[in-house]
């Protein structure tokens, strides 16, 4: 089972997920440690923008999945209602 991580969303990470996140952080640090302060500041702004676009994608995917689930539930309940009605 994964470990609960506090943040923008309630997520459960497995140990493999966490190992990958640490590796990515280490690689990022390798490059940013060699940057000038101005380059690092610009890179941080870039990362912030990328993070915002990821948030948009995640929000759209959740919204689409939620709507699809509601439509599926409606279709199932409509079919069940018709089946009960036709049995009488």
Structure summarized in a few sentences:
The protein is mainly α and 88 residues long. It contains 2 helices and 2 strands.
How many structural domains in the coordinates? 2
Q: What is the H/E string?
A: EEHH
Q: For this entry, what is the oligomeric state of its chains? A: single chain
Radius of gyration: 22 Å
Mean pLDDT: 84
For the sheet with most strands, the description reads: 2 strands, antiparallel
Strand portion, in percent? 5-15%
Proportion of residues in helical segments? over 70%
Can you describe this structure?
The chain is mainly α and 88 residues long. The chain folds into 2 domains: 1-34, no CATH class; 36-88. Helices cover 78% and strands 7% of the residues. The chain has 2 helices and 2 strands. The protein has helices spanning 15-32, 37-87; strands at residues 3-5, 11-13. A two-stranded antiparallel ribbon has the order 1-2. Strand 1 (3-5) and strand 2 (11-13) form a beta hairpin. The protein is elongated, with a radius of gyration of 22 Å. The mean pLDDT is 84.
Index terms:
88 residues; mainly alpha; 2 domains; two-stranded antiparallel ribbon; 2 helices; 7% strand
